[in-house]
Design a protein that fits this description.
single chain; 171 residues; alpha/beta; Rossmann fold; five-stranded parallel sheet; 6 helices
């Protein structure tokens, strides 16, 4: 029987960190914040702007649709319970419009629990429960943006489970 040579060596290196630990660059990224409560819009916008995002607010579904169709938006945070066009109606309209269908939408609502299957089927990218945990919201938005390296497309099938258990709060 013929035996070969065996070599061993050591390469000094730092352990690789998890991708979630590396902040995703947000410079130039625009988030459309949609909630019928102007105070919530302001609070979310301030948190986003502190992190370096450009934030735009809308206090109705109709206003949100107009902004999403007329400006470049990288991600949308969307309340479900609003007068007029509610969040689910807005989400459906966004996903059926070729100009907006690829914009990731993160639902920010006290009423998201139990609606996950409907929301995922409609194309939601993540859910953050109210009352809002700022860290969960920012982590979810960064995950949405970082997972696709800035490309605007639908999330893969594994994304919902990973985000729901790791990033989003439960109601």
């Amino acid at each position: 029987m013929v035996e070969g040579s065996t070599f061993s060596f050591t390469i000094p290196a730092e352990p690789a960190g998890h991708a979630a630990e590396t902040p995703i660059p947000v410079s130039g990224r625009t988030v459309l914040v949609v909630d019928d409560d102007p105070d919530i819009v302001r609070i979310i916008m301030l948190a986003l702007e502190r992190e370096g995002f450009h934030a735009v607010g809308a206090t109705s579904g109709e206003q949100a649709l107009e902004i999403a169709r007329s400006r470049h938006v990288d991600v949308i945070t969307l309340d479900l319970m609003m007068p007029g066009a509610d969040g689910v109606q807005v989400l459906r309209q966004l996903k059926h419009d070729p100009a907006t269908r690829d914009i990731p939408v993160v639902v920010v609502s006290a009423y998201g629990a139990g609606k996950e299957p409907e929301l995922v089927a409609t194309g939601v990218s993540g859910i953050v429960a109210k009352p809002i945990d700022e860290n969960d919201l920012l982590a979810t938005i960064r995950t949405v943006l970082g997972t696709w390296r800035g490309e605007r497309r639908s999330p893969p099938s594994w994304w919902w489970t990973t985000t729901r258990t790791c990033g989003a709060s439960s109601a």
